[in-house]
Structures are given as structure tokens and as C-alpha cells.
Input
Amino acid sequence: MDMLLRANGRSFCGFDAFYKSILLPFTPKRRSLSVELECSILAVTAKWEALQAPAWVKGIWLVEKDPSLVALTCDLRITLEAAQAMQRTEIVADLVEAINAALAVIDPSSEIAEKDILRARSILNNGLAELKSRHRCDGLLYMIAHSHLDTAYLWPTKETVRKCSRTFSSMMRLMEQYPHFTFSASTPQHLKFMEQHDTDLFREIVTRVQEGRWEPLGGMWVESDCNVPSGESLARQFLYGRKYYRETSGRDVNVCWLPDVFGFTGNLPQILKKSGMDYFITAKLYWQKTNTFPHRVFWWEGIDGTRVLSHLPFQRDFYTGFMTPASVQHVWQHHNQKGTVPISAYLWGWGDCGGGPTVEMIEAAARMNALPGLPETRLSTAQEFFQALEKHRELPVHRGELYLETHRGTLTTQAWIKQANRRMEDLYRQAEIFASLAGISAGERIDLTELIEGWHDLLLHQFHDILPGTSTKETYEDARQTFFKIESRGRAVLTQALGALLLSTMGAGSHVAVVNPLSVERRDPVFVPSDAQSAVAADGAPLPSQRVTTGRGRPGLLFQPKEPIEGWSWSGVTLSSELVPAMNGLRVSKRRLENPFFCIRLNNRGHIMSVYDKRLHRELIEDGKIIGIWRSADWPFNESAWNIDRDSYPHGRFIDEIAGIEVVESGPVCAALRLVHEFGASRISQVIRIYSEVPRIDFATRVDWRDRNMLLKAVFPLTVKARTATFETAYGAQERPTHPNNRFEREKWEVSMHRWVDLSQREFGCAVLNDSKYGCDVQGSTVRITLLRATSFPDPRADLGGHEFIYSLFPHKGSWRSAGVVHQAAQLNEPCHVLTTQAPGKACPPPVTGIGAPRHRHRPEALGGWERVCAAAV
Output
């Protein structure tokens, strides 16, 4: 049960399992106090469903403590804990003897006199001083007080607001009681919660920041996941986080504080340095399941060569610390660079659900230096620690990603939020770009305030227990509503920007405008929701066209533009009700798909047996193997939302159950087969689509997912022979071996990617693209991307229900760089915007591209309806 005590109307202190006693603010002039308790209990049912349950307070007592007796109790407790923690028997015996000598002067049968308490303390302290002189330990621990406070976890975000009030008000009281106490806190979003919901406490915090007793940390808006967010998102985490610190307290930060994040992309050092962050600290790599991470202090070198000074304290209590001799001894024993770097950080304070340091911990810290056999300790800030570490620059170097050998399932769990996150990342990038273009080209000044607020919400949901899928059902129910608002804000800005650009360049007549949100030309077919039968170019030439129905049952016209679409562009296209025959270079039947690029053969169960590339004159699928969807049991050893069991892979099989194969599109723009698989309680409807002018094979997939504890992977057994595969990551690409050669590489059997993974040999290669997936593995020449799983904790209904996504095979000549894999993946993820207009008057002007195009001004009332449609939704 968590409680917040309010005194005289303001948040005063947390009152819970961590804070069972509170020093009330009585003074000689104020002997009365108005007290209010706000109670919250988070219960979990047998089905792991979080609920709010009633709580009862059995009793509250006002007591007066004897300071001398409390001090003696602390002395004895810390000495006894040291004796229990020590592994050297001679020190243990001496500590026990010192305790007994102190207790010998106390008569337990009568009231303890003040002089006896003072004498007992003197005997104990003298004994410890003598032991310290005989059992010294060279070294220094910088003790950084903090509270790991998850923005959401086994509670929703709205409960975190209350947890912030409880934790932060408790820190204010400790600062009043102990003038030497300082506290370090990450996450600007938590301060914003206080600014919005607890303004008095917020002002107290700002005052302490300006005094130097509250250290802002981290720089990121929240302690974000670092595998799934795009490079743009990670950069904005620091942009908005540091900006908020500067605006509210006048302080900047340069320590990236991520104690509990599930692995770190190999390009994070570059993002850190370019965001003004000089130092990095995490405790999570202590969780490695197989291999111990070799360094405690090191230079972390990113994939571009950028280095950042980094620290990994090996803590007994992971990313929290309880300020006990056992915890201090554990950190020092596991500091394997003591000979060259005789310092380490120690993170202390209750965490996960907040709490922070307590009176008992501060009292223990005051006595820690008196104990024999332990290193010296110093209450510190993170900044002070790294300034001391700067003196030791001859350190080992770790190159590339910091891979966490556990929690691999977080790349896939709660697939919907990962898909929503990527789409909002793309939407907000486009909205800002086109808003800027509208100002430059159309003279339209667009207010971006709503876009910034939307970014704040999006960044919040990239927290390392929300985006990875490891929070409760209630958290994701709330998140769905928030994502609707995020999308609404982004669409409003994009709509206004495109409307302004359309008015500035539109000619009279009925026509179609196609907007390419990318900086490269593309040849994607264009879908228009219309009853038209064909499309005609500006010069009167008919365009290849066909009637299609989108995956959501929306009919319309699909046409192939005459020229590549480059930037902001008028297509100069008119729609016609007449059916115009066009040359069809596509062939399709239930067992075969063929276009100018590929010849694809399927077996009677819907598996692809052969993909022959006509350009390369090569078979792309390994002989005797198939492209298909693999299913296996998914029973991880613990924490189902977090983990995947490696041993379950070999016992899976391809989905063979076929309920139907039919031709759904036959050209001239695209051709497609629909396959329906039914297995267990689930159903997969997949459209395999090829194009007349796009050298890509798309797998548009709809899943009604009803089976628990099962994992799905799309499997591509390729004929490419390569020592390494390349995986897109935030602002970069990470190479990993296809044949592991050491124990660290063998543990990378499920790894992260963003929009693509590529396997290339010298003259050709194949990339597997996706629009929303992040987990994959490459073993030898086989690429497998993880599609779905269904876990039971902490959300018992995680991922059950409907899913829609696309993944693609993109064969190519040469390397992934020369073949434009990045551009193909971007085109799959960011389809063109299609704007249809009705305006009276003359025919539309010829195609124009770029922001320097001539303007054709029209009155707003001359603009009819226009609509944005994704070509990829076909």
C-alpha cells in the first residue's frame, strides 16, 4: 500500500513500506498540524490483471524518539550487518567482539541511561577504529542517491504521477533533515507531471536544483528503450529533455542515465555526443544470462567511431542499492579494474516503484567509512563521479552495440504499439517537413505547438517498460487512447501543410496530386479511392491502371505514374470513367507469379519453393527449402513478456494448414495471390503481391491471433553466402556475423532491426523489409523475422486479436548500399500522399516538382474535397 501524507494542504512525504515513520514539522510556535493521507493499493488478480482495491490503515501513532538510542541502534545494526557480510573470518570475530563489548555496558532489565548509551557508542566506535587501522581497503565508492521510478510498469502512467509526489516529497524532507544529502533524478517527464499536478512540490524541487542539492540526470524525456525507437526519436528524447531542464531550472545535463534499459543500439554513442552527453551509465548489463560483461569502466565506441566514457556498476541489487555492507562489498568485489581505476559508483535508494533513499540508508551511509574491510565511501552526484573518472582515460574499448543477453522478447511483445510508434515517427517527421515547406513555398505559417505536445506524448510511450511491451493491460488501454490523440495532432498539422502547398501550386480542373514524403524518386503505383476506370497523363497518354480493393475493403483505382515521383509533385493526372486497355507484363495463377523481375513458384500448401531473379539469372531460394511462416511453442523460463526460450525454435514447424488460395489481382500494375491459413484458433490471410515496375515481393499479412504461448516467424532460406548480415538501427546499420565464432556471438540468436535486414555477397544480395517488426535472426543463409507472440504476464491478453502488417523480399545487385535498400525500405514504410481535387476552369498545369515550383494561387473556396491515401494500404 502506498500513501502520501499531506501536511497543511501540501505534499509532505511518502508513507509506505519504505517510509514507516515520518518526522513531523512541529515547532515551538506550531503545535498543531492538519494531516491528510492519500492511499493507493495496486493489487494483481490471479489472471495478472491490475486493479485498484480498497486499503485500510490499522493505526497511526505519534511517538517521540530518543536520538541517542536511535543512534546506538544504527551503530549496532550496521556493525552486525558488516559481520554477516564479511567473508574473512578474523574480521567477523573482531566485529562480533566489538558488538558484545558495547552491549556489555547496557542493563536490559532497567531503563537505559543516557550516559550508558554514550559509553556503549564510544566503546563500539573505538573498537571499529582499531579494526579499521588493521583491515584497510584501498578504493573509493561514489554513492549516488537516486530512485528508479518506472513511468509505467505494473501500474499505469496516471499512478506514476502519484508515485512521483510520494517519492519527491520524501526527498524534500530528507534534505531538510540532512543538510549534506543530495539526490539525483532522471526523467524530465516526471518533473512535468509535478509542474502540472503538484505545483508546490515542483517549486520546491526547482529550488533544490538551483541550490545544487537535486541533480537533474539523463537528458532523455524518459528513460527510453534504445532498440525500437528511430534515430529521430532518440535525438528528440535528448532535445526535449535537456530543453525542459534548461527552461525550468536553468540547468543542463551531460550524463546519460539508463540503469534499466534492455540493450543499447550501436549508434547511441554518436547520438549521445551530438546531443551534448559526455557520459553514459547503466546497470542492466549485469543481467547477462550467459556471459559476464567484461568491463566496469570503458570507452564505448559506436559504429561510426564516436566514443563516450561509460560505467557499469555491478550491483547486488541491480539498479537499486540498500546501503548495506553486503551491497557495498559486492560492488567493490565485482569491480574488476581496481588495479588501474580504484573508483566506482554505487547507486542507492529504493526503486522500480520509486521510494528513493530512506533515513535508515542515510544513517548507514554515515557509518560506512568506520567499517573495516570495505572501501571508502563518499556521498556524491553522478557528475562528480564522472569528473573523477576523467582522470583515468587509459581504458578498454567496447565497439558496437551493448547487447543484453536476455529480454529478447521485448522486440516483439505488444506488436500494436511498436507499429503505432513507427507510424507516428514517420507521420511527425513528414508533418514537420511539409509545415516548413508550406512556410517557404506557400507563405503559410503553421503553428507547431500541437506537434511538440504530440512528440512529448510519443516520447513518453517509448519508456523502456511501455514500448517493449512489458506493462499491464491498463497501461496499453490508456496508450491506445493517447496514440489516437498523437495521430490526430500530427494529421492536423500535415493536413494544413499539404492543403497550403496544394493551393499554392494547383491548376484548375479535376486532377490528382501525388506527394512523395521522401527525398528520393520512386516508382510506386498510386491508389486513388474513386469509381474511375483508368488514369490519363497530362499529355493525354493512358497510364497502366486497374481496379483494386484495399485490405480493408475499400475500392479504388491503382495506376502507374508515367515518370518517377520526385518530392512534392503534381502528377498532372486526370481520372476517366472509360476502361483503357493496357499492356500487361504480369502473369499469375494459383501456383505461379511472374513479372519482368521474378518468376515465383508455390507448392499446394502456399509455400514459395522458388524465386528466380531474371535480372541476376539466379535462383534465390535454397534447394529443397521454402519461404513460409514458422510457428513454435513460446514458453520462456520466466517473465513471459520479456523473454523468448531459444530451445523452442527447433521444435516448431511451418504452417501447412491451407484453407484457400485465390488470384485477387492480375495486372497490369500489380498481380497477387491470397493465401488463407487456419491453425489452432488463429487465422492468417496473406496477399503475396508483385509489381510491373517495382522489383519487390510484398507479403501483406492479416492475422486473427487467438493462440497463447506461440511464436510466429517469417522464414527466408536464401542462396546468399555471406559472413555477416547487416541490420538497420537508429541512424545507422549494424553488422553481425551469420556464423557465430565465440561465446558472445552465440548469444545473439535473436537481435534487433528496424526497417530492414540484408544478406549480401559480392555480386548480389537480398533484403527483407518490414513496416513494423523489430526482432529477427540470421543463421547462415536463412533470414527469419519475428512476427507475433502472445504472452500472459503482465498483460494476460497481450497481442490477442487482429494484426495487419507487411514484410517484403527485395533481391538486388551489389551491396545494400549500392542497391538502395534503405530507399526501398523507406518507400514501404512511407507511401505517397494522394490528393484528389475538383476545381473549375482550365486544365491543370504540367507536372511541377520541388519547393521552387511556380505558384498557382486559388481562393480557398475553389478547392474541393481532397483525401490522403496510402498506396501501401492496397
In short: The chain is about 30% helix and 25% strand. The longest helix spans residues 473-505. Residues 544 and 560 are 6 Å apart (CA to CA).
